[in-house]
Backbone:
């Protein structure tokens, strides 16, 4: 058996309201989400002695100084964009399982709607390109007008749609399922904002083949999760949610999209088998998936990388309600980045945790016992965790 | 050709291996790194051969011929520098040598791009200092 399997748990999750418009700084948002996660876990700020940070700002020092943490003994960072929060769970699990830290905080927050993006392309163009791929982009892509995720993932999506003749109904089904689920989630920014197939089809093109509703939201807010060892988790307020499997993976090469021999082998393709093997489960055992949904076509590629369906078949699979609540494999039961909020997928971890605790009321997946959360970021880095109650 | 001050779009930073790559372009030669040990072509430029680990390479001359592999069509301005160009496609071309690069195909609109479309390199002296390799559709002679 894998030495890390079920040795660490998610013990607390919390978030701020998800809005467009806020008076709070990014740091304040993160601190509010952290306090909500601590309250959920039945812990106090001084109980936190580790942090794994998926975004460069604010730093662990900023956070610890505000929270009044007396003994911060472990900090690490994960710099793989949207794949970082889920990868951070693996790092945090290692730290608590080995006794390096007792309770590790993983927070993400930003005012992505109101303020400048913390990463890359905010309003008005790129600010501070990430070191992981900024060099390639500035030297070889930006002279040809390509600098934001909607453009560089359009390279993947264009070839994918052309090669496999993916029907419009595929990505549409992803967008519509996410919105349907958001209506059942009082935290979702898009709750009670209907989306029809006609709305989807008629929306403006952002970067072909991405229409407006293929793209994730820009929202203000924060979300945080807390990881503890399995022993400690059993004494806390909530039922422990076990981290049974975890892995990260990277496309080859990770810093250049055109140069990939296997164009559709995203990081998740390499990570998924490792996490399933560690958890000793298969994709067929899953009760739900929370998929990093920066773009609908990327969700299709991730479903294929997970092994839910064969290459090129996800566009068919996702139709006919298969990924909706009540369907074969419910996806993003909170609405995801497409319809709940964009906090880099920490909200996906929070939702998976609440589903496995059976706290999701009208959007609860019946008898949910096993689920997966994926991360996807930068130029296609990937991560996943397999969680069980 | 425009002066650097008047050129509205973005220019590549001329440093390190990028300076080497674009310096060949300025001479109207498309060259890529080719490993001296195992002969593997590569782009984007790198210090080592990811295939065999050798630090030795030459800047080998490309045929300049290839085909369209994929593209991203920008339909709303993403960068102020390219606002006047919308809609435009940032195309991935696969050269006959096997390497792929981001570029523009200059003589057809984005909606006429197809996977496998044969193209050949041209050189656009966009400023007095910088030449960008671009492509045009290759038609039977
Ligand atoms: Zn070599």
Residues:
């Amino acid at each position: 058996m894998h030495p890390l399997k079920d040795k660490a748990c998610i013990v607390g999750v919390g978030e701020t309201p998800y809005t467009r418009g806020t008076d709070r700084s990014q740091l304040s948002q993160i601190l509010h989400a952290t306090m909500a996660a601590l309250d959920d876990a039945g812990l106090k700020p001084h109980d936190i002695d580790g942090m794994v940070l998926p975004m460069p700002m604010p730093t662990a020092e900023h956070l610890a100084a505000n929270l009044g943490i007396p003994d911060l003994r472990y900090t690490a960072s994960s710099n793989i964009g949207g794949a970082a929060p889920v990868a951070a769970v693996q790092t945090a699990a290692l730290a608590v399982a080995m006794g390096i830290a007792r309770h590790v905080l993983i927070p993400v927050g930003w005012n992505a709607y109101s303020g400048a993006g913390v990463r890359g392309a905010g309003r008005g163009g790129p600010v501070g390109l990430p070191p992981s791929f900024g060099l390639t982009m500035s030297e070889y892509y930006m002279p040809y007008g390509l600098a934001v995720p909607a453009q560089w993932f359009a390279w993947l999506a264009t070839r994918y749609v052309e090669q496999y003749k993916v029907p419009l109904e595929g990505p549409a089904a992803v967008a519509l399922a996410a919105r349907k689920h958001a209506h059942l989630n009082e935290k979702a920014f898009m709750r009670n904002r209907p989306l029809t197939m006609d709305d989807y089809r008629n929306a403006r093109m952002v970067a072909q083949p991405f229409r407006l509703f293929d793209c994730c939201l820009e929202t203000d807010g924060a979300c945080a999760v807390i990881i503890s060892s399995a022993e400690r988790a059993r004494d806390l307020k909530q039922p422990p949610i076990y981290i049974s499997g975890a892995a990260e993976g990277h496309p080859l090469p990770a810093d250049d999209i055109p140069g990939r021999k296997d164009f559709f082998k995203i990081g998740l393709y390499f990570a998924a088998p490792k996490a399933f093997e560690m958890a000793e489960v298969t994709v067929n055992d899953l009760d739900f998936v929370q998929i990093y949904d920066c773009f609908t076509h990327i969700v299709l590629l991730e479903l294929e990388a997970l092994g839910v369906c064969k290459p090129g078949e996800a566009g068919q699979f996702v139709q006919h309600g298969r990924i909706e609540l009540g369907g074969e494999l419910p996806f993003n039961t909170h609405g995801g980045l497409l319809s709940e909020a964009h906090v880099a997928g920490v909200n996906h971890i929070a939702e998976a945790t609440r589903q496995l605790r059976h706290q999701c009321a009208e959007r609860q997946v019946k008898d949910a016992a096993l689920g997966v959360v994926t991360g996807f970021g930068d130029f296609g880095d990937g991560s996943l965790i397999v969680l069980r109650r | 050709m425009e002066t650097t001050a008047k050129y509205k779009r973005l220019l590549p930073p001329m440093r390190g291996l990028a300076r080497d790559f674009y310096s060949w372009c300025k001479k109207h030669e498309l060259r890529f790194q080719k490993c001296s040990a195992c002969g593997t072509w590569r782009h984007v430029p790198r210090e080592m051969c990811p295939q065999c680990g050798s630090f030795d390479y030459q800047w080998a001359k490309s045929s300049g011929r290839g085909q369209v592999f994929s593209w991203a069509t920008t339909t709303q301005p993403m960068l102020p520098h390219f606002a006047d160009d919308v809609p435009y496609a940032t195309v991935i071309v696969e050269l006959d040598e096997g390497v792929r690069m981001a570029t523009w195909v200059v003589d057809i609109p984005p909606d006429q791009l197809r996977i496998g479309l044969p193209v050949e390199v041209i050189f656009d002296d966009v400023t007095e200092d910088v030449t960008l390799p671009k492509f045009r559709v290759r038609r039977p002679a």
